[in-house]
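Incident log, structure service

09:12 report received: a user says their structure output differs between two submissions of the same chain.
09:20 pulled the input from the user's history:
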Amino acid sequence: MADTTSAKRLTRIEQYDILTRPPRLELQAIVELAAQVCDTPMATINLITDVAQHQVATFGFDAAICRREDSMCAMTLDSDTPVVVPDARLDERFATNPFVTGEIGSVRFYASHHLRTLDGVVIGTLCVFDEEPRELGATQVGALATLAERIVDVLELSLRSRQLAQSNERLSTFAGRVSHDLKSPLTSVSMSLEMLRERLSDDDEAADAVWLLERALNGSRRMAALIDEVLSYATLGGSMAAEPVDLDEVLTDVLSDLSGALSGVEVQRGPLPTVTGDPVQLRSVVQNIVDNAAKYRHPTRPLEVAVSSRSEEGRVVIAVADNGVGIPEADRSRVFEPRVRLSDDNLGSGIGLDTVRRVVQAHGGTIGVDETPGGGATVWFALPV
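09:34 re-ran on a clean worker, output below:
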């Protein structure tokens, strides 16, 4: 149990990312206020790791790091707080401590309050002390507790700010991914319009021209929908629609847009279900997976792609199987990480499957990859019914 508590403490301290940074001005201000309220010449914020005490903000003396076994605050982490000791020489917990005996310091009065995170992990203390014995009044003790809570608030706010910055970076990555997604329908539009220009010179080809024009317009509409999705994601923090999505229709559109990449390939397709979700985002999922199947072909055998679905335990599983180069078992979880590319073939940006994973998870689903019997990769995603 102690090891688990220590591990949680280390995790929270690492998340706050404060040990190696200059003292934060907000924490310096709180420490000074604690000293003033408690009428002590010295105060500090101590974070306690498994081996050391780190003074991350101090008042009345210079910050330092000491061994955990020498720390007075480390001895009180499992105690009820606040801890108030009028004269540490007379307290059996501290009488022989080097901060009391003169080896490191000559602390007499000592008072501290836990720094407890939102999930209940004690990461250190707010401590005030003096080299003369003294007492604290009830109001001062209450103020010490309030200031300790504000310290945690500052650390949490800093953490949330960094997370927001990371979220903005992911938003930028998402925009890059959508730009990548636009290439397939754009290629379809460009090819269709080029053929249309050639065929319009011959009136006998008018019927084909109309069909090609309709195809180009459909591709344009899908590009517009993708752009709208990017704008919505950026302005609303990633809003997601929840409406019926016919994955059969989605697959038909995807195969149309990828007709160039899948030229000469017979795609076997079984019936796909209608699910609830965001139609644009789910289309991006299907398109990315099928597009990868088209890209990573085996050099010695014709490409085969099969799209199927099955129901299991309250969810539907959509699988795209190919007989391409496959993905080594050790790398099958890594391919869903940001910017991971398993080769230098310039076929992908390394952000497609990361976006796919996040979209599937946002829909309450899971995603994975298995080996196709006989060789190749089967990428699947499961969505709740």
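09:41 both user submissions now match this output. Likely a transient worker issue. Closing.
09:42 reviewer note: The helical segments are 2-16, 25-38, 98-101, 138-199, 206-236, 247-257, 279-295, 352-362. DSSP finds eight helices and 13 strands in the chain.
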